[in-house]
Design goal:
By secondary structure, this protein is α/β, with parallel strands linked by helices. The chain is 26% helix and 26% strand.
């Protein structure tokens, strides 16, 4: 188990290998499909974004409402392929990490390698457990999107796995081969 402090540094990213179990502590931003579309459209037009993605890690999440005593409600990862159209642009703008679930497109993997970034997989089905690691949340932009708005989370020991490392090694390709009986 590796303990990583956010924001990510290039040196940290180079030490992360596909398959590593990681606990993240520090700040990350959030965003899902609708927020990504808005950010992408602004970037395509050459406008400044309402959030500086340089050096950030983004968690693909739209949590349920918070219960008393919690910063957020259940906060499980969203299927990452839904952001694949937008991720290369954000990575080229300096985004360093992404957290979600599921495989990524070849274009996203190329952008990860090109930008010395990393993709973490959070545990699907563990939304309540993940929510316990989110200690604080504050709005950044697109509040009209409700729980899918862009927010800043402070997390402690947020559990995930390095799914695609900065060299393009990919657990979604390597791990199934270990169990193929053909």
């Amino acid at each position: 188990m590796k303990r990583i402090t956010l924001p990510l540094t290039d040196e940290q990213i180079k030490t992360l290998k596909a398959g590593d179990s990681v606990l993240l502590t520090g700040t990350m931003i959030t965003g899902r499909d609708a927020a990504h579309k808005r950010l992408f459209e602004l970037a395509e037009k050459g406008y400044e974004l309402p959030v500086d993605v340089k050096g950030e890690t983004i968690y693909y999440v739209g949590p349920a409402p918070a219960k008393p005593g919690y910063a957020v409600g259940p906060a499980g990862p969203t299927s990452s392929y839904r952001m694949d159209k937008y991720a290369p642009t954000l990575l080229d703008m300096g985004l360093k990490g992404m957290v979600g679930k599921g495989a990524r497109s070849p274009e996203v993997i190329d952008a990860i390698v090109r930008n010395n970034a990393v993709y973490f997989a959070a545990i699907g089905g563990a939304a309540a457990l993940i929510a316990k690691s989110i200690k604080k949340t504050e709005p950044i932009c697109y509040e009209d999107l409700g729980t899918e708005s862009v927010r800043r989370y402070y997390v402690e020991d947020f559990p995930c796995v390095v799914a695609i490392d900065s060299e393009g090694n990919n657990v979604y390709e390597t791990e199934p081969k270990k169990y193929n009986k053909e």
